[in-house]
Amino acid sequence: MATAGKVIKCKAAVAWEPNKPLVIEEIEVAPPQTNEVRIKIVASGLCHTDLYHLFEGMHKDGFPAVLGHEGAGIVESVGPGVIEFQPGDKVIPLFIPQCGECRFCKSPKTNQCVNAWDVGVMSDPESRFTCKGKKVLQFMGTSTFSEYTVMNQMAVAKIDPTAPLDKVCLLGCGICTGYGAAVNTAKVEPGSTCAVFGMGAVGLAAVMGCKAAGAKRIIAVDINPDKFEKAKVFGATDFVNPKDHSKPVSKVLSEMTDGGVDFSLECVGNVGVMRSALESCVRGWGVSVLVGWTDLDDFAARPIQLIAGRTWKGSLFGGFKSKDGVPQMVKKYLDKKILVDEFITHNMALDQVNDAIELMKQGKCIRTVLSISPQ
Ligand SMILES: NC(=O)c1ccc[n+]([C@@H]2O[C@H](COP(=O)([O-])OP(=O)(O)OC[C@H]3O[C@@H](n4cnc5c(N)ncnc54)[C@H](O)[C@@H]3O)[C@@H](O)[C@H]2O)c1
Ligand SMILES: [Zn+2]
Ligand SMILES: [Zn+2]
User: Fold this and answer.
1) 249-256 and 271-279 are packed helices; what angle lies between their axes, rounded to 10 degrees?
2) Which of 208, 243, 268, 288 to mutate to test the pocket of ligand 1 (most atoms within 8 A of CB)?
3) H helix or E strand, kind and range, residue 205
4) What are phi and psi of 139, to 5 degrees?
């Protein structure tokens, strides 16, 4: 490739500071160093975690940054020591690496590779980007709102060359997160009753996971009733809008299910909803999984909730070991075993990223897929 070994100047959406629109800039992307891969990003979804960083969490030291962590692309060039990837390979960048060698990667119990960047800060201080003479951070290590990005090879998954990148980009975060939270973390059982709070892409994917695991009843909970029609497509059987009830939603669910659901998944990112999700579970064996993202507040619950036999768990990236799990999910999509296209409500160009952000803020989309570089 003519660009190998050289700095690439390309377009990216830069978040200069919290709470401000992203700015389309020309950035410089350095060549990949040892064990690194430079990727031409073809398409990227917008996930609520991008909004969280920009408007809600607002870690001042996480800026300037290029957001985006739900992308897919093509390897442009590789650095020294990379043998697994070649220019032209189709790949998905991973916000959790899988080195395969650390104590966490060797355990079947978790996907928390020791090489993960500091999730507290949310932006990787190692960055190959500069803009106007300033270093620009890579949000979640990935930065898919850029025509090119550089990743360590332990955080890149090679996928089936026939996969459509403008669809499977969503397997880089939202779909794997929700689906895996149901299947891998909650371990939903056949014949069970489930409740999923929040019908964004993550919650809808959790509904899809509950259905795949054989749940017989799946209750979709959202304060935006526009989401319920979509929830049906993914397998929800019942719908509850907490705003339609004067009593707490956990009470409503408990009455609907003779004492509570077997499994609940919180896909909102709100500690009050996390508590409701736990309290919606049946005593004795109910399992509640935190999927929604927040570190603004502590959560609270009465100890009796757990003493009486409920389990409270959390799930990052659906518990998938990223490098192994993502290509398998791509295969499932190509084999028509999971839905992906149905999550996409809008397609836009990178220049329209602020419109995509606005749509999500207003609850008017499930996923917008941005086309980043021409293929
Ligand atoms: N754990 C992980 O690895 C991981 C990965 C990706 C996203 N996330 C998090 O998952 C959450 C969902 O992401 P998304 O992209 O689907 O977001 P989204 O904004 O598309 O969807 C959130 C949904 O929650 C609903 N909601 C808001 N308040 C509610 C309430 N009080 N009760 C019920 N529903 C309510 C909204 O109406 C919306 O439909 C976010 O917090 C995101 O940061 C976590
Ligand atoms: Zn995400
Ligand atoms: Zn590891």
Assistant:
1) 30
2) 268
3) helix 201-212
4) -60, 130
Taking a C-beta distance cutoff of 8 angstroms, is the pair 49, 57 a contact? Answer: no
Answer whether 39 contacts ligand 1 (Cβ < 6 A). Answer: no
pLDDT tens, position by position, 208-239: 999 999 999 999 999 999 999 999 999 999 99
| pLDDT tens digits, 125-178 | 678 999 999 999 999 999 999 999 999 999 999 999 999 999 999 999 999 999
Domain ranges in the chain?
8-172+340-371, 177-315
Does ligand 1 have an atom closer than 6 angstroms to the CB of 180?
no
Q: Does ligand 1 lie within 6 Å of residue 201's CB atom? A: yes
Q: Which of 129, 179, 116, 104 is nearest to 332 (CA)?
A: 179
Does the domain at 177-315 match CATH 2.30.40.10? Answer given as no
Check if 69 has its Cβ closer than 6 Å to any atom of ligand 1: no
Query: At CA 128, angle to CA 80 and CA 167, rounded to 5?
Result: 90
**Contact 274/250 with Cβ under 8 angstroms?**
no
Residue given tokens 């690496």 in the structure block: 97
| Domain 8-172+340-371: CATH architecture, name and number where available | Alpha-Beta Complex (3.90)
